[in-house]
Amino acid sequence: MRRFHAIFVCVAVTIFLTGCANTNSQPLVVMTYNIHHAEGADGVLDIDRIAGVIAGANADIIALNEVDNNFSDRSDNQNQPKLLAEALNMHYVYGATITSGPQETPNQYGNAILSKYPIIRSDNHKLANADNKEPRCALAATIRIDSQTYTFIATHLNHQQAKLRNAQANSIIDILEGIDTPVILAGDFNCIPGTNAAAIMTETLDSSFEKAGIGDGGTVGRNSKIDYIFMSRDIAGKLISSTVIRDETTKIASDHLPMITLLER
């Protein structure tokens, strides 16, 4: 992998450790980013560009959507979560939502979590689905950050049917009922604030951007607000700010813009 500059069917999950924690007194930076398998708006496949965006934001924990692992020629059969973790010196976990091909070298597509902090355990939860629709999952990781343990969840909901998105959101609510740590939930929910799945989530969690957003919050298209970072109310008091990173690089690196939220540690 090239060096970059910081200016700039669900399956079992395996935890990979390629980095080490960097404890400091700075705010905790959480990111959600649909990377579109690292193919940018310019049609160029560039996983290093994605790594540069993450590094430039100094993100501590990151939810990634549309991540390929040996998926196809479209991403040069890259193991994208591994490449990103190695470039950023982070821990990572991957949760496939689609798996095909041989068992020894499966072709996979799904969600990933990157973390500067050790991932203690992870689970890839299957969400509600309908016939002939793309499977969706919620990848949950238990992460120890300083003296606090968090559950960090990355997900990506259906883009076609509001009814199905609602069912998937309710699947996540069911998952949350079994968690006894503070929760941060992030990803592409494919709906605007106050509607269907987003409204269901805010019955239980707080939306970081709705509470402390800076700017318009648009992450795709003509400023559509469909990517979110939610948090459980026991840590909502730690919220500092939330914003979308819009610059010359992020505007072309993917078809979505990354969102970051800052929390007190």
Main beta sheet strand tally, sense and closure? 8 strands, mixed
DSSP summary: helix tally: 6
| Count of the separate structural domains | 1
What general form does the structure show?
globular
Main structural class: alpha+beta
Tell me the CATH topology: Deoxyribonuclease I, Chain A
Share of helix, binned: 10-25%
| CATH architecture descriptor text | 4-Layer Sandwich
CATH superfamily: Endonuclease/exonuclease/phosphatase
Range of strand content: 25-35%
| Extended strand count | 14
The main sheet orders its strands as 1-4-5-3-2-14-13-11
Pick out its properties.
265 residues, alpha+beta, Deoxyribonuclease I, Chain A, 6-stranded mixed sheet, 14 strands
Q: What does it look like?
A:
- The chain has 265 residues and is of the alpha+beta class.
- It has one domain: Deoxyribonuclease I, Chain A, CATH 3.60.10.
- It contains 6 helices and 14 strands.
- The strands form 2 sheets. It has an 8-stranded mixed β-sheet with strand order 1-4-5-3-2-14-13-11. A 6-stranded mixed β-sheet has the order 6-7-8-9-12-10.
- Helix 1 crosses helix 2.
- The chain is globular and about 45 Å long.
- The N terminus is likely disordered.
Describe the structure concisely.
The protein has 265 residues and is of the alpha+beta class. The protein is built from six helices and 14 strands.
SSE diagram, text form:
Blueprint lengths: L14 E2 L11 E7 L12 H11 L3 E9 L10 H9 L2 E10 L6 E9 L3 E8 L10 E9 L2 E9 L5 H15 L6 E6 L7 H6 L4 E2 H5 E2 L12 E5 L7 E6 L5 H4 L5 E5 L2
Parallel strand pairs: 2-3, 8-9, 11-13
Antiparallel strand pairs: 1-4, 2-14, 3-5, 4-5, 6-7, 7-8, 9-12, 10-12, 13-14
Helix pairs in contact: 1-2
